[in-house]
Amino acid sequence: MSNTNKNILIYVSGSISCFKSCSLISLLTKDGFDVRVAASRDALKFVGKASFEGLSHHKLHTDMFDDEFEIPHIELAQKWADLIIAYPASADCINRLACGLADDLFGAICLANNYKKPLLIAPAMNTQMFLHPSVQESLKKLKGWKTVILESPQGHLACGESGQGRLLEPEDAFNKIKEYFA
Ligand SMILES: Cc1cc2nc3c(=O)[nH]c(=O)nc-3n(C[C@H](O)[C@H](O)[C@H](O)COP(=O)(O)O)c2cc1C
Fold first, then answer.
1. In Å, how far from its chain's centre is CA 179?
2. DSSP code, position 157
3. 75-98: buried (b, 16+ CB within 10 Å) or exposed (e) per residue?
4. CATH numbers and ranges of domains, the chain
5. In 10 A of CB 179, how many CB atoms?
6. One of 18, 99, 110, 159 is an active-site residue; which one?
7. Is 159 known to be catalytic?
8. Distances (CA, A) of 49 to 43, 115, 133
């Protein structure tokens, strides 16, 4: 099945694994998906705007009040995206989403989407952050709201430890996305 005309919105939050989002964007665009990227302010400390814009061929979305769309959260969530994925999803991103906050672009996008289109989240953080009750309870709550929580495999982490909290590899996230359009 052709992926032309299928629109994927990737939200990138501030994690050491942000660079892996570039591979995911590349895999998706090469496969014919139209990809737009929204990034948190802190994500841009790890990967630059030029990489996101160059790989997606679209302007980066960062700010609800300074965007190519007049009402970007409504346009992106209700008119443009066929699937939304937070890749990587930081602890902060997960806890904020579980509170239903809408004071940043991605929070507002998720509320405006209201699960009309699939919302996938790929956690990425240090093992103790991942196991913290706030993160675990947020993931449980988000799952109950129909968020798809992607598996966080065990393995080597950037902090030098080994354990849970690794970001799902780009190829595996790509395959999960493909399943929705199979
Ligand atoms: C070098 C470095 C690496 C970090 N990696 C992660 C990470 O993998 N996961 C995470 O949840 N936070 C990580 N953080 C902390 C987040 O960047 C921080 O909580 C930030 O406020 C997240 O905000 P955001 O979700 O709005 O991007 C890291 C911070 C630094 C300085």
1. 17
2. -
3. bbbeebbbbbbbbbbbbbbbbbbb
4. 7-180 (3.40.50.1950)
5. 7
6. 159
7. yes
8. 10, 28, 33
Contact between residue 61 and residue 67 where contact means Cβ atoms under 8 Å apart: yes
Give pLDDT tens digits for 36-85.
Answer: 999 999 999 999 999 999 999 999 999 999 999 999 999 999 999 999 99
Q: Determine the atom of ligand 1 nearest the C-alpha atom of 93.
A: 25
Give residue 119's Cα distance to chain centre: 9
Q: Are 114 and 82 in contact (CB under 8 A)?
A: no
**CA 43 → CA 21, 101, 165, 181, distances in Å?**
10, 18, 17, 28
Closest C-alpha to 137, from 168, 94, 101:
94
| Ligand 1 closest atom vs CA 17 | 8
